[in-house]
Design a protein that fits this description.
The chain is mainly alpha-helical. The protein is 68% helix and 5% strand.
Length: 204
C-alpha cells in the first residue's frame, strides 16, 4: 500500500510539473508575439525582413580560414512611417500567431489535467484537440499569410532608402500545417477512446 501511495504521488507530481511547464512555455511563446503586435501597431516594434545583402569580409590570409562568399538571409528592422496597411497586416499576423500558440498550448494543458484527474478520454479533450488542430491549420496560414503580406509591403516601402537590399517575399514553414492535421487526426482517436470507455462503463 505504501509503495502504491508513493507511486501515485510521484505520478501526480510529474503531471503537475509537465502542466506547469506547458503553461509557462505557452506564455513564453505567446507574449513576445503580442508585444510585437502592440509595438508594430504603436510604431515602435520591429519586423524581420528577408535580404540577400552581402556580408563584408576581407580576403583570405594564407594558411588561415577564409570566407569565399557570404550573404545575410534576414534583417531585424525597426522602421517608422510604414503605411497603415503594412502595420495592420504585420500586427494581425503576430496576433494570429499568438492565438494559435495559446489555443494549442491550452489543449496540451487540458490533456495533462485530464490525465491528472484520471479522465484521459473526456469529451472536452475531443473539442480541445479539434480546436487546436484547426488553430494550427487556419491560424498558421493566417499568421503566415497576413504577416507575410505585411513583410512584403514593408520591404517594398523600405527598399528605396536601403539600396534594394530587402527581398519582397516571406518564408513559410508548412510543418505547422502537418502538425495541425496530426492533431485533428488525434481528436478522432480520442473520440473513439471516449466511445469505448462509455461502452465499458455500461457493461460494468
Amino acid at each position: 500500500m505504501a509503495t502504491t501511495s508513493v507511486s501515485r504521488r510521484m505520478e501526480r507530481g510529474i503531471l503537475l510539473l509537465f502542466t506547469a511547464a506547458a503553461a509557462i512555455l505557452g506564455l513564453a511563446l505567446a507574449v513576445p508575439a503580442l508585444r510585437q503586435a502592440v509595438g508594430i501597431a504603436t510604431g515602435g516594434g520591429g519586423v524581420s525582413l528577408l535580404t540577400q545583402a552581402d556580408l563584408p569580409h576581407d580576403d583570405a590570409i594564407a594558411g588561415a580560414a577564409g570566407i569565399v562568399s557570404a550573404t545575410f538571409d534576414s534583417a531585424w528592422v525597426i522602421a517608422s512611417g510604414l503605411s497603415d496597411g503594412a502595420r495592420a497586416l504585420l500586427a494581425l499576423g503576430a496576433v494570429a500567431g499568438a492565438l494559435t500558440t495559446a489555443l494549442t498550448v491550452g489543449a496540451v494543458v487540458l490533456f495533462l489535467l485530464l490525465l491528472l484527474w484520471r479522465r484521459p478520454f473526456h469529451r472536452a479533450l475531443i473539442v480541445a484537440t479539434q480546436v487546436a488542430g484547426s488553430a494550427l491549420l487556419i491560424g498558421g496560414m493566417l499568421a503566415a499569410g497576413l504577416g507575410g503580406l505585411g513583410r512584403m509591403m514593408a520591404a517594398d516601402e523600405l527598399n528605396p532608402i536601403a539600396d534594394d537590399v530587402f527581398v519582397i517575399g516571406f518564408a513559410f514553414d508548412p510543418a505547422w500545417m502537418l502538425v495541425g492535421v496530426g492533431v485533428l487526426a488525434l481528436s478522432f482517436v480520442f473520440s473513439y477512446g471516449t466511445k469505448l470507455q462509455r461502452e465499458t462503463e455500461l457493461l460494468v
